[in-house]
Amino acid sequence: MKRIHIGNITEINEKRARVVNIGSLEIAIFKLTGGALKAIENRCPHKAGKLSEGIVCDHHVFCPLHDWKIDLEDGLVQAPDDGCVTTFQTEVDEASGEVWLHIEEERILAS
Amino acid sequence: MKKKLVLIGNGMAGVNCIEQLLKLAPSRYDITIFGSEPHPNYNRILLSSVLAGDADMKDIVINDWSWYEENHITLHTGQTVNAIDTQRKLVSTDGGISVPYDELIIATGSLPFMLPLPGADKEGVIAFRDIKDCETMIETAKKYKKAIVIGGGLLGLEAARGLLNLNMEVSVVHINPYLMERQLDQTAAIMLQRELEQQGMKFLLAKNTEQILGKKRVTGVRFTDGHEEQADLVVMAVGIRPNIALAKSSGVEINRGIVVNDFMETNIPNVYSVGECAEHRGIAYGLVAPLYEQGAVIAKRLAAVETEGYHGSVVSTKLKVSGVDVFSAGDFTDSTDTRSIRLQDDLAGLYKKIVLRNGKVVGAVLFGDISDGSRLFKMIRAGEDVTGKEQETLLGAAVGGSAKSGADMVASMSDDEIVCGCNGVSKGAIVSAINDKGCASVNDIKACTKASGSCGGCKPLVADVLTYVLGADGVKTVKEGICGCTTLGRDEVVEAIRSMELTTSKEVMNVLEWSNPEGCSKCRPALNYYLGMVWPEEHEEERESRFVNERNHANIQKDGTYSVVPRMYGGVTTPEDLQRIATVAVKYNVPLVKLTGGQRIDLLGVKKEDLPKMWSDLDMPSGYAYGKALRTVKTCVGSSFCRFGTQDSIGMGIELEKRFERLNTPAKVKMAVSGCPRNCAESTIKDFGVVAIDGGWELHVGGNGGTKLRATDLLCKVKTEEEVLEWSGAYLQHYRETGKYGERTSEWIERVGLDTVKAALDKKEDRDALNDRIDKTLSLMQDPWKEIIEEQELNATFVPIVSETTESVLK
After folding, report:
1. Which chain B residue has the Cα nearest residue A111?
2. What is the pTM of this model?
3. Which residues are CB-contacts of B248 (< 8 A; sequence separation ≥ 6)?
4. How far apart (Å, rounded) are the C-alpha atoms in residues B535 and B533?
């Protein structure tokens, strides 16, 4: 498991996302209302839409291409569509606000 | 030195007042808030959801700790203010804190009324008012079995429902022979009781509690008729009374509540009161909407904004009691001078009643289906005379007769025939969703199959399939709101935004009880538009609610790249501009350059991170080819070069485009100006088309060359260029104010009718007023490209937060 520093929590606005590129792996880091961070692969399982550009409602994001609704907690696509997006673990230092991302090495290599 | 504002009471009314003040005058006061409870501001109305297990404590917080911090508000929780020195202008608390004030708001709310019964102080006897009571009930349910709720009003029934969910046996004791007598008539109350009994509630009606039994802890209650009932927990929910002790001991004038005038001022200078503790013209309100209206008045006063003051509210009750919808408004009890019409269906659990006096609707009760509530409430408030159409008033518009033929048509369709073209859903798929998955409404089918979920054009056909399978009686008619988060329609939402002066989406969702806490991708952009339209100055643009195109000011393409379209007024450019566009296109490796349907240059295939740099290199205004806004004004050459041209269509087009540039509208707006009736600019399929004729201009409206082809209607003919501008501004603003979000003018004009639009624009003074409002909005708009280029923080969001190669990560 790799622990990668990706910046500070203040660099992401609430209900918005920023993109992190690790090799060819593209990850979207969302900040929910209240400050919690969620990291998922920036790729809708439908037509590869950039989820980072979607509208965020509570812990869901709506894909900007065709409005698929995805749960940011577990990456599950909501009915009537189905599918799943890979999620990643984030770690935030409460005092400094620095953020790290945990990614399995195989994922980085495989992507 | 800022003035000091102190708020006593950290509840919904007081804090909402502060929120409204912050919007009007963000930094005028040093604000201190005192709250007795140890929590930040929460939505007390939703306590019953917490008890029912539908929400967590954290879900009902309206403003969390960070909100106080961000707004530099000093919050003292767990502190009860016990003295106000109105001479020295000082408040002090039981915890020993003293704070001086220049302005003071008392918002101490109300206290649950505890019946002064012998034994009422025993362990296990509580009220249902705050988070602590909720916690006590949850804890009690783990150890004990039997609960009694005293009070058969809304609060008591909500408490009882929550206790049922906690697996307790619950009996509700009520002094009246029927439930909720303040909100319901006897018929509706009996229907409600029947429903609740089915859910497992027991009722002891027309009972007067005499004594609470037990030694240290409650074991039961005894009634005046000698009957005794066992209980491990007694919840008193018999009512509330204004919490006035503090005000009273401080010399503030008291009646039942704290007496305030139309400006919510008490008899002491600089001391205001708002909320359930305040009494205005003899009334202490217990509903949210009036309290927010009161708060708005104080906020305006404190911000030195002119206000007419508060004149009281006509209230209606719209409630969900244990999953049953009830509504009542006005004077709904029968008397000798009233007549009523009722509709009762015990089997379906439906009841409707309207009460008429002198031909006017004065009251209404609805049970089971409350979709007519707001319509009836409007009639009651307006005092509308309904003589001759009383039945219609109760039953609503007559049910359409076309359903039968629609169902017949569906019968002749084969199973694999496509009903929804956008999502490829066949008749067979819909039929099986109805039969196998139990879908009974268009919404169900949308959620289950996506049919009618995109453009919505097939909605009537989907409804026909429903009727065909289930029969007219089997179809659930669900009132459809602006999205799945609410049952309220566009007009109701906009009306609430206006009347309650709501200025953020969060407020709208909170006050109008959205079912999803942060809405969805349909309502969020819509609310953002409506708020900006109603309050162009006060509403703060909510970027996070914008669809990607409008947030990034470029059209997203299917591969995640974007297109850049510079503004080109009237379709006219110069060799220098063309050169610049070409240079930029080469510099950023733009893979495709083409002309758009609206005569502009489109640079396609641009990476998101390149957008701000490209805009900066272009140094041209944004072409808005991505927005629900004025796109382009297409023109022909007109009299400048054309041998047939009668007027300067290019000049007119440029003028229109400059005037309405950046205007937000319910949906995209396209315009065109043709220099002669040959109409080379295709003005008669535009949202607003201008056709030059000899000696004047024809103005055409409501056209569309898109999915639903529609030719324009002629609005009028005018003589001068000034008149073209005057009519176009008035027309656009009227559309902005009455259109549904996402509704093109072509759909809008068919919905509201050409004659209505003509009537609204008929008088010069009405057109002037509309133009004043559109000018106000236009004066506040900025070029988004420029804004992003100039603001570092916005600019930064366009680039990835971090980019690392695989090698450097794995090292």
Report:
1. B806
2. 0.57
3. B254
4. 6
Tokens found for residue B212: 């609470």
Q: Contact A55/B545, CB-based, under 8 Å?
A: yes
- Do B800 and A19 make contact, defined as CB atoms within 8 angstroms? yes
| Cβ count within 10 A of residue B258 | 30
The DSSP H or E segment spanning B425 is strand B425-426
Distance, CA of B572 to CA of B289 (rounded, Å): 52
Nearest CA in chain B to A9: B801
User: Which residues of chain A neighbour B519 with C-beta distances below 8 Å?
Assistant: 57
Taking the CA of residue A88 and the nearest CA in chain B, the distance in Å comes to 16
Of the candidates B330, B27, B402, the residue with the CA atom closest to the CA atom of residue B182: B330
Residue reference for tokens 């009471």? B9
Contacts of B803 in chain A (CB under 8 A): 20-21
The whole-angstrom separation of Cα A53 and Cα A62 is 9
Most confident of B61-65, B94-98, B381-385, B703-707: B94-98
Of A29, A67, A103, the CB nearest to B521: A67
Separation between Cα atoms, residue B700 and residue B245, nearest integer Å: 66
Nearest CA in chain A to B802: A20
B709 near B685, Cβ under 8 Å?
yes
d(CA B525, CA B595): 29
Each residue's pLDDT tens digit, B451-496: 887 666 677 788 888 888 887 776 766 666 788 899 898 999 999 9
> Looking at CA atoms only, how far is residue B387 from chain A in angstroms?
47
Token code pair at residue B464: 């026909």
Q: Which residues of A touch B796 (CB under 8 A)?
A: 11
Closest CA to B274 of B254, B299, B291, B256: B291
- Tell how far CA B280 is from the center of its chain: 27
Q: What is the C-alpha to C-alpha distance for residues A77 and B583, in angstroms, rounded to an integer?
A: 43
Q: Per the structure block, which two tokens stand in for B659?
A: 């005037």
Radius of gyration of chain B (CA): 31
Cα–Cα distances (Å) from B570 to B133, B218, B275, B564, in that order, read 66, 82, 55, 18
Q: HSE on the CB side for A110, CA within 13 Å? A: 5
Q: Residue B458's pLDDT is what?
A: 76
* Interface size, chain A vs chain B, as Cβ–Cβ contacts under 8 Å: 103
Choose, out of A19, A61, A63, the residue to mutate when testing the contact with B (most B CBs < 10 Å).
Answer: A19
- Taking the C-alpha atoms of residue B775 and residue B660, their distance in angstroms, rounded to an integer, is 9
Q: Burial of B782 by CB count in 10 Å (0-12 exposed, 13-18 middle, 19+ buried)?
A: exposed
- B448, B519, B797 member nearest A80 (Cβ): B448
Nearest CB partner across the interface for A56, out of B544, B802, B803: B544
Interchain CB distance below 8 Å, A62 and B548: no
Nearest chain B residue to A109 by CA distance is B806
pLDDT in tens, B751-789: 999 999 999 999 999 999 999 999 999 999 999 999 999
As a residue count, chain A comes to: 111
Which of A20, A62, A108 is facing B810, going by the closest CB pair? A108
Contact residues on chain A for B521, CB-CB shorter than 8 A: 54-55, 57, 62, 67, 69
Residue A108 has which token pair? 């980085």
Which residues, at least 6 apart from B567, have a Cβ–Cβ distance to it below 8 Å? B600, B620, B621, B622, B623, B624, B657, B661
Structure ipTM over 0.90, yes or no: yes
The first and second tokens of residue B315, run together, are: 């209230």
3-state SS string over B182-199?
CCCCHHHHHHHHHHHHHH
Q: What are the distances in angstroms from CA B810 to CA A3, A4, A26?
A: 10, 10, 16
Q: How far is CA A10 from the centre of its chain?
A: 16
Contact with chain A for residue B541, Cβ under 8 A: no
Name the pairing type of β-strands B233-236 and B103-106: unpaired
Strands B29-35 and A25-31: unpaired
Residue B526's H or E segment, with its range, is helix B523-534
